[in-house]
Amino acid sequence: MLCALALGFAVSVAASGSPAPELPSGPVVKVDVSVSPTAVAPGGEAEVTVKVAPRPGIKLNRYPRIRVAVPEVAGLVAAAEGSVGNDAPPPPEKLEGNYFRSVEPVRLKLRIDGSATKGRHGIEAKLSYAYCVAASGFCSPAKETLRIPVTIR
């Protein structure tokens, strides 16, 4: 739905002859990934914390949720997902309430396979979020690939 709204907005701007909205250059968020404990035994569990901080002038949306998804990696980890935000958009009269004032960290548990091999592993995850540029009102969904560092002891 958000993609359809963004596409509709882009089409209406193009049809109106107005200048295109200001697109941000470079990353719109800073991402910090931490894992606790730093070394995990095969068959154990680790908690992953992903902190997402918007750069100045960027607002992160509560809807759709900010999500971190880890696909299953056979012999290493089970699939996992964590999210923060809202499941539904705010009412039209309270759109400003859709932005995080302070973004809560996304937390998820990784279950380590009992046959996982010792050593350092970089587990790929997908981060998805929606943001708006405060100055222009331009809004867009975004996806990034993260590497979660896990050490199997």
Describe this structure in words.
With 153 residues, the protein is mainly β. The protein has a single domain (24-152), classed as Immunoglobulin-like (Sandwich), CATH 2.60.40. 10% of the residues lie in helices and 44% in strands. The protein has 1 helix and 9 strands. The protein has one helix at 2-16; strands spanning 29-36, 39-40, 45-54, 58-60, 66-70, 80-84, 106-111, 119-133, 139-152. The strands form 2 sheets. Strands 2, 4, 5, 6, 8 and 9 form a 6-stranded mixed sheet that branches.
Considering the chains and any ligands shown, give keywords for the structure.
mainly beta, three-stranded antiparallel sheet, elongated, disordered N terminus, Immunoglobulin-like, 1 helix, 153 residues, 10% helix, six-stranded mixed sheet
Topology of helices and strands:
Blueprint: H1 2-16, E1 29-36, E2 39-40, E3 45-54, E4 58-60, E5 66-70, E6 80-84, E7 106-111, E8 119-133, E9 139-152
Please count the beta strands (DSSP E, at least 2 residues each).
9
Distance between the termini: 44 Å
CATH class: Mainly Beta
Class from helix and strand fractions? mainly beta
Mean pLDDT: 88
Question: Which fold name is given in CATH as the topology?
Answer: Immunoglobulin-like
Beta fraction: 35-45%
Shape: elongated
Total domain units: 1
Q: What is the chain-wise order of helices and strands? A: HEEEEEEEEE
